[in-house]
């Protein structure tokens, strides 16, 4: 069930009126639905309920502390890519022993932090990183649980910028080097081999690339077993897509059932790292029309939200639905919805048929993932506020940035 629906011709966020929220908290504004976040997480967890598993929500999709806390309370694990994300998980009440640490460039300080907190597993992405992690662990008198991220060289069929499982991408260890690096990991005193990991890309709408990757990874796991290297878990990564427009990605139950079937009775624990599938449709981005302008063939709606708040349309030419918070009767016009940033590429959507007036609120749907987390202060614009609705209640979970925060920490020369 969608928790952002019209009621009496007004957009609601759960049981709250979006227009009222926009007036109370100001725009641009991110609004998340707690019920949707919980529903999406449970959909994943239920899909593998009969198999040993851990759902590690990918923090990069939406790292607001309240969002992480909602998921931590459900018992979620977390997939992190930095010390910053790890500290957010801890602040939000997440368990370090359910954290997997992905990323190609972990620093020594981040390794130390994660070892001292006792995370579930490091997803190691290169031979060089493996050696570094071993040194750090030995120095601290610890043994690091490791999984090697192997690049299965499959085409995820997604946008090139968010495809990660091809040989030409920077991620993971090449399949033909994997066995030797596993053997090396197995011989190092500071490491304990736990798993195998892959992640082939984001916003996948077909199941086949996941299955192709899985076949290659399972064949590797079987070869490792022959060498006496026993793998406890298989981390399948994230990447399950969502509906932005008319895509029909598999639902988590269909996706998980297909993976479980491929597993063929192997007693491997499965780790999932979904980000977008949990957070994207749990959020909207609300912006207000500042000015309408146009000429005989082009109409622009200048809104107070911009590419610094929501960069997906500019960066990936991503299409996200833009809907009026209070739809008007009457004729529509073809608008480009553009922000105040001084870039031609600053748009939230192009060619949208809408009936607009100055002061109207618009909602950009599916903005709960890779929205706020990718925002910036470009043009010295303060970051938007974030709120979470929970039934008829709304909670401010991050205040709009104040102008003075934009230069905090910067110093004049003496
Ligand atoms: C290693 C890893 N895990 C999980 C994710 C989450 O991906 P998604 O939000 O597509 O589920 C990503 C991002 O693509 C990633 O790089
Ligand atoms: N930020 C991307 C997804 C990247 C996933 C991170 N590995 C998006 O908005 O679609």
From TrEMBL:
Orn/DAP/Arg decarboxylase 2 C-terminal domain location: 33-368
Active-site residues from the entry: 342 (proton donor)
Needed cofactors: pyridoxal 5'-phosphate
Biological processes, Gene Ontology terms: lysine biosynthetic process via diaminopimelate
Annotated ranges, domain Orn/DAP/Arg decarboxylase 2 N-terminal: 35-280
Binding site for substrate: 276, 312, 316, 343, 370
Similarity field: Belongs to the Orn/Lys/Arg decarboxylase class-II family. LysA subfamily.
Oligomer status and interactors: Homodimer.
Function: Specifically catalyzes the decarboxylation of meso-diaminopimelate (meso-DAP) to L-lysine.
Protein name as annotated: Diaminopimelate decarboxylase
């Amino acid at each position: 069930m969608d928790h952002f629906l019209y009621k009496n011709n007004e957009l609601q966020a759960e049981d709250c009126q979006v227009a009222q929220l926009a007036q109370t908290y100001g725009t641009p504004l991110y609004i998340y639905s707690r019920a949707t976040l919980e529903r999406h997480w449970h959909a994943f967890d239920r899909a593998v309920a009969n198999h040993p598993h851990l759902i590690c929500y990918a923090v990069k999709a939406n790292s607001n502390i309240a969002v992480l806390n909602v998921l931590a309370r459900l018992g979620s694990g977390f997939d992190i890519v930095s010390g910053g994300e790890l500290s957010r998980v801890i602040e939000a009440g997440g368990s370090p022993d359910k954290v997997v640490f992905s990323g190609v460039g972990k620093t020594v300080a981040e390794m130390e932090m994660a070892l001292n907190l006792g995370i579930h597993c490091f997803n190691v992405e290169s031979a060089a990183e493996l050696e570094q992690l071993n040194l750090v662990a030995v120095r601290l008198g610890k043994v690091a649980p490791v999984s090697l991220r192997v690049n299965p060289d499959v085409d995820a069929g997604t946008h090139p910028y968010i495809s990660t499982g091809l040989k030409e991408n920077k991620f993971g260890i090449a399949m033909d080097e994997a066995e030797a690096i596993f053997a090396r990991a197995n011989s190092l005193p500071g490491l304990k081999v736990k798993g195998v990991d892959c992640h082939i890309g984001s916003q996948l709408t077909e199941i086949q690339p996941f299955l192709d990757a899985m076949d290659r990874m399972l064949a590797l796991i079987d070869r490792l077993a022959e060498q006496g290297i026993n793998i406890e878990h298989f981390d399948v990564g994230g990447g399950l897509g969502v509906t932005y427009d008319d895509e029909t990605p598999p639902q988590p139950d269909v996706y998980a059932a297909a993976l479980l079937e491929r597993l063929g009775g192997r007693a491997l624990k499965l780790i999932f790292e979904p980000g977008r599938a949990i957070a994207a449709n749990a959020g909207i981005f609300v912006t207000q029309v500042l000015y309408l302008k146009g000429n005989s063939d082009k109409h622009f709606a200048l809104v107070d939200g911009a590419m610094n708040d929501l960069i997906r349309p500019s960066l990936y030419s991503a299409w996200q639905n833009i809907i009026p918070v209070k739809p008007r009767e009457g004729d529509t016009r073809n608008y480009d919805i553009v922000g105040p940033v001084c870039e031609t590429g600053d748009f939230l959507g192009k060619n949208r048929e809408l009936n607009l007036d100055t002061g109207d609120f618009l909602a950009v749907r599916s903005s709960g993932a890779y929205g706020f987390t990718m925002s910036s202060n470009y043009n010295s614009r303060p970051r938007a506020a974030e709120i979470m609705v929970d039934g008829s209640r709304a909670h401010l979970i991050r205040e709009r940035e104040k102008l003075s925060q934009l230069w905090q920490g910067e110093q004049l020369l003496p």
